[in-house]
User: Fold this.
Amino acid sequence: MSDRDPIPLSEQLRRGNLFAEACPSREVLRHVTSRWGVLVLMALQDGTLRFSDLRRKVAGVSEKMLAQTLQGLEADGFVLRRAYPVVPPHVDYSLTPLGVEVAVRVAGLADWIETNLPRILEARPEADAVSA
Amino acid sequence: MSDRDPIPLSEQLRRGNLFAEACPSREVLRHVTSRWGVLVLMALQDGTLRFSDLRRKVAGVSEKMLAQTLQGLEADGFVLRRAYPVVPPHVDYSLTPLGVEVAVRVAGLADWIETNLPRILEARPEADAVSA
Assistant:
């Protein structure tokens, strides 16, 4: 499954290589797996949301960090930002088809963590993260 | 998947909830999706590695960051650190069964990004990341 070492050059040019320091795939990975990127992608899986709704859903994110996260995901073509010329201004965000695809993978990881959290907490040497 | 005895915690901790600000699943997600966490999990999918081998494989990581990343993954029970009482000292790292499971999900996301990198770069408004 993971025989990653001998990747031919032609293959490297056709696809990204996260183990290569200069590969742009690393930047994409950073956006997608950033502290808030994961949660924004998951929140948008349910449909289009306005900035304020997103911020409420992704509890704990600051306005600045949410804006920055959305900009990164927009730059990678995962999120579509739509501004409507109305008063007061109306801006909303949704996943692009590419964003839907990546969100599925992100949600797969997130779901696994949520489901297996009890096992993970049990496996911790010090269980103080659990105790109040 | 793993229906173990429920830990005597509040209802919401029986299963993690990444959208809840105080849920410990957020910390686990941070370790697993950290800049280097992803690459370390993927590197260890191929088998046990020593620190220096890991560092070579995960190009660009500093000693300090690699040590910190491994500590986080060890604390969550994903990585097993083994120190052999020999001279010179021999320490190696491998995935635990829990680590194997999470690495599969992480690799699913990483593979998608690597495979779809050309589409992502094309989708970028400014395609300067592509040009040399």
User: Anything to note?
Assistant: Chain A touches chain B through 60 residues (CB under 8 Å). The two ends of chain A are 42 Å apart (CA to CA). The helical segments of chain A are 9-14, 25-33, 37-44, 51-57, 63-75, 97-123. The domain at 22-129 of chain A is CATH 1.10.10.10 (Arc Repressor Mutant, subunit A).
